[in-house]
Every structure is written in C-alpha cells, then in structure tokens.
Fold this protein.
Amino acid sequence: TSDGLMYIRSKNDSKKYKPTNEQNVITFNIPFLQNKFTYDPKDIQPFIDSVEGAKFVIDSITISANSSMEGDSNLNAGLQKKRAESILDALEKTQIKKFVRSVQTSDSWEMFKEQIKGTEWNDMANKTKAEVKKMLMDDVLRNNMEPILAKERFAGINMKLTYDITGANEQSYVLSALKRAIDKKD
C-alpha cells in the first residue's frame, strides 16, 4: 500500500498484515539558546519523542544551522557549526551505528527581513545586511529585538530513518503506522 504496509493473502482469502521495514524522512527544528553550543542526548530526546512514536535507526541527517543577525558573521558561522556538530554527536549517542552527517550554516537575513515586516523596525528591511548588523551593536535595540532574534537561532533537522520493527519494537511501529495511515485517511 502507499504507506509501506504489506498485506499477505491467506488460504481463506482474508488479509493478514505483516509489517515491513519502512524508510521515512522527518524534519523538525531545535531552537538554539543564546550562547549555548553543547547538547547531549537528553536535550534532543524530547524532539525525537514528539516526532515519531516508533523506534528507528537514523540513516542520515542534514542540519541547517541558523544564527540571528547580531554578532560577527565569522564567529556566528563557527558557533553554528559547533552547535550542529554537538547535536549530531548527541543524536549519534542514541544510535547503535554511525550515520551520514551533513551541516550547512546560514545567517537568517531573509528570515529577519520577513519577521520585521509590519513592526516598528520595518524600515530595517530596506538597509543592507552590514547596516543592520551595525545597528544591532546597540544594546538597547538588540535587547528590544531579542524576541525576533531568538526565533532565528535554530537547527533545522532533516533526518532520513528506517523504522526498527525487530522484536518488541514491532508493536509500537504498527501503531505508529496505523496512526499515520488514519491521519492521511489512507
């Protein structure tokens, strides 16, 4: 079927369900706290638990690490990479095998311009990135804009995984697959 579930016909022509290994791609964001750059498995686990109910093995992960507009671009890029690598290391500790890892970094210039539309800082969208960075050196302005800037600090996670349907994991997988099928009205 379209959800990866396989049915087997028995002698009396009734359907019997047999789970098969299914691959999936899930995406989620992990917010970065200002000046925090080390993560361990307990920091990451709530995000994993909220995304999927079934046990899985990670095949590969791409992290798009984003930073807010204030601060030195080179220092921010280094901090983004350090945060992303720390998240990858934490996720790898939850797995029995290593997975393919990829990190991309970005400032949040385009996101920043979108977020300030219709705010008291709307005119900043017409300035250059360098001009905005210089403006954000002002402590009062930066503190006032912190709710906007905080939304720009995050890791966008794109994780390819294979569900683990061995042993006791089969039941949680089947329930998760059934829920996904119901949600999709399939």
Observations:
- The longest strand covers residues 56-67.
- The longest helix spans residues 73-93.
- The two ends are 9 Å apart (CA to CA).
- Helices lie at 41-51, 73-93, 109-115, 129-135, 139-144, 146-150, 169-183.
